[in-house]
Amino acid sequence: MRQDPSGKNTHKGTGVPVDCGADGDGANKENAGTVRGNETLPDGESIFFQMFHRNPACMGIVTMDGQVLEVNQRFLDVYGYAREDLIGRTAAEMDRLLSPEADRILNEFFIKGSLRDYEVDVIDRSGDKHSAVVSLEPISYRGSPSILVMFFDVTELRNTQEALRTANEELENKVHRRTENLRKIAVELEEQKEVLQKVFDKIPIMLIFHDSLKRVSYINPEFERLIGWSLEEIKSMDLLEACFPDPEYRRKAWDFMMAAKGIWRDFEIMTRSGVSLPSSWANVRFSDGTQVGIGVDITSRKAMEADLMRLASAVEHAGEGIALLGREMEIHYFNPAFEKIAGYKLQEVIGKNLMNFPDYLANDRYKEWIDQIGAEGKIWSGLQKRGRRNGEIMDLNLTIAPIRDKTGKLDYFVTVARDVTQEMKLQQHIAQVQKIEALGTLAGGIAHDLKNTFTPILINSRLMLENVHTDDPAYPILGEILQAAHHGLDLVDQILTFNHPEAYEKSPVVLSIVIKEALSFIRSTLPSAIIIRHNLDSNRDMILADPIQIKQVLINLASNAGYAMRKKSGLLNILISRTILSAKEASKISPDLARGSYIQVVVRDTGEGMTEEVRKRIFEPFFTTKRKEEGSGMGLAVVHGIIKGHQGAITVKSRPGKGSTFTILLPVFEEGTASEGPAPGT
Fold first, then answer.
1. 96 against 3, higher pLDDT
2. Which of 223, 252, 335, 588 sits at 20 to 30 Å (Cα–Cα) from 573?
3. What is the DSSP letter of 332?
4. Per-chain mean pLDDT for the chain
5. Phi-psi region of 622 (alpha: psi -120 to 50; beta: other; left: phi over 0)
């Protein structure tokens, strides 16, 4: 060893300077120690090794004759070699790694004393070629002259797109600067700073750097684009006051910024143009006290949230029941309409399996439909009967559709249910009314012709009977003809009454009095074994009606009751009361029944009753369960027509062996009421 004029140690015969690090003349004598065998490294050399092994560059240490003494982990990671593949080997033994370039690199190094940015091809362990820039610097390693070899792999850099060549050149310049200042850790930090700067400039979020005194040191282009002020303008103004004109809102924003907890919160920021910008912000604080505000424009998110809120509101207020089910039919959501249909609140069923509620499902086929819909991906729609929680049976129009995620995987099922019970009843009612009206029209035409036929028969048979002696064999025959003609004309009158119930004049009458007058006739027609009871004396309500028609209604109902109780004694009970019906209650009784105050007349017998099939048809013209000679099937049809003509309704409940109950509703007539409709209810 000898010294060159600069005072540095040089290698004998080469003149190459050697930096001994902690082991040289410039080492800190207080901390330095001799590194030999298992002795502890001095602090300077320990720092060197930390930098060596943690360095992001590929590095190695070789002797002056090219023998490998050490490589760092970055070198092994990049080129795929194991440490034992390299340690102790010479340059001549590493032709695979550096090809023939190894000797040339060393010769160049010994000539120049150092070598920087020498371009070579490096072969990794798998045989792949890498482009690299290699630099060599003389050092003292454990007291011996050695060479620090640094590889900078530029393979990917040279393979980048043409548009990034300028950036690649800049990166190569940074590599040169870092090589020149290897001992200075600040170089790496500077590089990171430059990368971050590029990120700050290109990232589509707002960034603002400031301190606790509201002094702004940096804003990125996205901040300037969205908020509107430049950094120069911001430095001469109170940005916080400009962005948050309301003092209280400004105070809350500043408190949030100073807390710097890294959590997100939404704020409305006033921009330079005077437009309020919906944004979300998070704030962090660096160790030097600098705070960074990170903001994003949430205009699109707010619009989407508004759309979702409108959609949610529409679902919540929809008239149809909407339910969201999982793949296994677990309940995720009921809207209020569905709660009403099913009879369950959402909190009672959420997370539970729909099949656990048989009172709603009514059958097990629902699971089959769900499985089929999920497999085929089709929408199912149909009319089904379901039972509410309270046992009430309803008609539901169901639509079940699958919901899939972006990959096509089944996620949910949506069920839309609409209670069409009343609609079905209305359709049935309309069909019944149309049937009755059609029959009435037909019967009216036939009755008119029959009246023209029976009238001369009646007149002529009466004249002939008056002129024939009672002993004449023709006398009883003429009597039968006359009786048949009378019966035929009575039937014709019933048909005409059914077809034109409005033909009679209506006036205010006390219903209980009209019923009592009818009962005097009814009592004479019923067997004495049938008991008649009533509560008519206390009711003085009036209706707008034709009393003759109302009497006919009571007589027909009593006559049918008497026939039903003909085989044994029985009880005919006639009850009258006043009731007020809401629109919903009225529609359940009859679709065309209005809300309001009504007189309710109940005619109940203890007769043989009727089946459900018979009950549904008893108001049809010419339908009867009596023998031909016992009835025409027009009595109850006439009753129905009269009640309907008085803006009322009639219903019947019956079971075989349990008797029948007819309920009549007629609108109350209030003094001063101009219309014939029901008095308004309260």
1. 96
2. 588
3. E
4. 78
5. left
Q: Answer yes or no: pTM beyond 0.90.
A: no
**Which residues have C-beta within 8 Å of that of residue 572, sequence separation ≥ 6?**
526, 530, 531, 532, 533, 558, 561, 562, 565, 603, 604, 605
Q: Are 598 and 581 in contact (CB under 8 A)?
A: yes
Phi first, then psi, for residue 99 (nearest 5°) are 55, -150
Q: CB within 8 A of 475, min separation 6: which ones?
A: 465, 468, 469
Q: What is the C-alpha end-to-end distance of the chain, expressed in Å?
A: 119
Q: Which of 536, 534, 599 shows the shortest CA–CA distance to 572?
A: 534
What b/e readout covers 117-126, taking b as 16+ CB neighbours within 10 angstroms? eeebebbbee
- Tell me the C-alpha distance between 28 and 621, whole Å: 124
The pLDDT, as a whole number, for residue 167 is: 61
pLDDT tens figures, 318-334: 878 888 888 777 888 88
Which domains, ranges and CATH numbers included, belong to the chain?
2-159 (3.30.450.20), 203-302 (3.30.450.20), 318-419 (3.30.450.20), 427-498 (1.10.287.130), 503-667 (3.30.565.10)
- Work out the number of other CB atoms within 10 angstroms of the CB of residue 462: 14
Nearest to 134 by CA among 124, 120, 146, 145: 120
| Cα within 13 Å of Cα(520), Cβ side | 5
Both tokens of residue 570?
A: 């029985």
- What tokens does 164 get? 């990034």
Size (the chain), residues: 682
